[in-house]
Structure formats: structure tokens, C-alpha cells
């Protein structure tokens, strides 16, 4: 996340095929690890990122011609780094801007959702633009029905700063008042009791908040149909 | 789905390893297909199931020792067949009951969700019980924040019949009145104008309903934060 919108960590390929294009960090699955262990190992080894607040499988990308030469099947992951973390990365690696989702519009009653086909990462190698688009859309959807904001936000934040993160990830305007009301009603947000230092323009100091929970949960899971006592506590498989 | 709860289509292994145990249908990825094409081909070839109302990637299962011998990595899918479809399946294949999720209970405020570790398919081969448990939990979660009920229900149904499907899949009681109210408010349900034939006990004939849409959507996606005109129309990445 940044002033330029959602960003993804990518490295520049120094060799053909697709020399000069941007690629997602990754590598081969080791003989003695599963894909979950592998992704954490590779993030740590290749891009020195250890502060990942949430990781989940995104999907398998297996189109036969997705990479030239020997067939490679990718298991892609979505990993989120909080906005206040700026890990040191190797020289060939950088945070690259992700294109926003296709323009929002009110669909006709019978319209199907617009499939995302345009690469979301400019100059991406292979199908990595498609993978980034899928990750962007997963993040956007899960922000709406889970507490996943915890993985984007610093430990403590003002509502205004949180709103900016949601706007960036959702790609459309969000009212800070609405955001605070919804997250509070769902018991996801609590005041820390402290206030932020005043900004350059002075004014009333803003209250700091934190997420009540830093484990992914469905926050609005059809609550009226849930058994008593379980409201808002559904685990996300 | 059935009187015995959620069911999964599985075949009995005739050879070691794990002879006599129940296995999910599957097979090797072909050279000229991606995993999505492969799963549809294999369902059609091996279990003659073509009436799948919804298919989605469930996840990659890659633990190094999950299958004896040469390492095999599985991409598992969740495929749903409506309750009124009863495809003819081969002799070694049957619908097997899936164990319900762990007992519901109100968690303590700081409790983590209970991870599912017990196999959900009795007598399952390899890690297939774990895969079935993940599928059961995915179905349960998506029923709560999407319109996925369309993939379980017949084209037309009474509210009472739909309630029975939700109760089976969710594993806890659901009020038919609540269900109708919530699905109607989300514009997921509409009356067909027809009524069901009276049951053996007579009584007032029940109205028939259908889902307004048979494409997966997030139905309650943080609606208050969405831009005008997009309420309830979010595509599920």
C-alpha cells in the first residue's frame, strides 16, 4: 500500500525469457516442505520479507503455456504487509504499483460481473499480471466480508488513516464515518485511549484505534442465521 | 446433500495403498489442459457427473508424505451438485456422508477458531478426509456471505425445503422465516408464482421460489461501504 495505490513486491528479470519484465518472487517447492512452508521460506530468502501479517493460498495457475519451456504450475499466495512496514529488499526488487480494478459501474440487473483479464502489474512477466489481478480482487473482496484490514493497518491508527487504506484497496470512495460505524458495530475496532500527535495543520488530536483481533474472520457471516453466541466469530476456511 | 447430511462422491480403492478406503475422484493433469479443464474432464470420465452447478478451486494439498511413493501434489476443487440431481455413478462409487463440523459453541472472547483436523470422511484414503473437511468448511462459510445456495437447491423449491438444505450444510438450526427474510432482503430469492403440490398431511400449498441468480456473488459485501448502485453485486474472485 502506498500513495500510489496498492503495491506488489516484484523483481526485475535479468535473463530471458521475459528479461526486463517484473516477476513475483517464487521458486521451486522443496522435497521436504509443503507449499505453505515454501512460500514463507522463499519470501525470507529471496526478498528478506519477514513481516507478513497474513498469508493465504490464492490459487493454482496451470495454463499449459504460461511459461516457456518445461511446464511449470504455480501455486500463488496472497501475502499482506502492514502499511507501516518497509522491509529492506534486494537491489533488483521493488514495490510496484498495481493497476486499480476495472471502473466501477452499476451493472444492469442481468449483467454478469466483469471478468478481470487485463494484467494488473505493468510490464509483468509470464502470467504474473493475471496473478496480481487475482490477488488484488481477493483482497478487495475479503476486506468487505472479513476483518482483513488488520493486515494492512499499523498496530494503531486514526480512522482517517484507516479510511485511506480501505479507499486504496477497494478502489472507490469510503466515508470515514461509515467505516468507523461498520467496524465498530462488528466489534472489530476499539479505541486505544491515546490520540495521534496533531498534524501540521493543528486541529483537534485524532483518537487512535486498533483492531480487536488479528486473525482472519468472516465478520458479517449471514449473522442472522448463525446460532446464538457465534455472531461475528466465524473462522474463515 | 441428503437425509444423512452433506454427502461427497467417493470411490472405494480396490488396490493398495489404502485398499478398501474411500477416495475422492481425481487423476493426473494432462499435458494440454489446466486444472480447471482437468477437473471437469475427470468428473465426466470417472464418475459420469456432468450436472455440477458450481466448481471452484479449494486449495493445494502438498504435505510431502500425503501419499506413499512418488510425491503427488493435489489441487482440490469444491464441486456442488443440486439436491434433486442423482447422477448414475459407477459400481465402485457412492455418495458417502460427511461428518458434521465440530460442535458449535460460543467461544470465549479471546478464543481462536477451532482448527478442523479430524477427517470429515470416515474411512478416507490418504489425506482425503482433510480435503473433505476443508470443502465442507468452505461450503459452510460461502453459504453465509454469498448466494451459493443456488448450487444446492433445485431450480424451484419451497422455503421449507431450502431451509432443510441450509440446516444440513451449516450444521445448525435455521429458521425458515429468517432465511426467507434475509435472502429476500438481499434480492437473492423470488417467488415463481406457482405452488408446490400439497404433502401427505394436506394443509395450505406452499409457494415455490427460485434464486434470482445462478452465478456466485458476495451478497452482503460490506454493503454500506460500496459505491452506489453496486450493492449486492460484488463478484467473487
Automatic annotation (TrEMBL), chains A, B:
<dbReference type="Pfam" id="PF21906">
    <property type="entry name" value="WHD_NrtR"/>
</dbReference>
<dbReference type="InterPro" id="IPR000086">
    <property type="entry name" value="NUDIX_hydrolase_dom"/>
</dbReference>
<dbReference type="Pfam" id="PF00293">
    <property type="entry name" value="NUDIX"/>
</dbReference>
<dbReference type="InterPro" id="IPR054105">
    <property type="entry name" value="WHD_NrtR"/>
</dbReference>
<protein>
    <submittedName>
        <fullName>NUDIX hydrolase</fullName>
    </submittedName>
</protein>
<keyword id="KW-0378">Hydrolase</keyword>
<feature type="domain" description="Nudix hydrolase">
    <location>
        <begin position="1"/>
        <end position="119"/>
    </location>
</feature>
<feature type="region of interest" description="Disordered">
    <location>
        <begin position="94"/>
        <end position="114"/>
    </location>
</feature>
<dbReference type="GO" id="GO:0016787">
    <property type="term" value="F:hydrolase activity"/>
</dbReference>
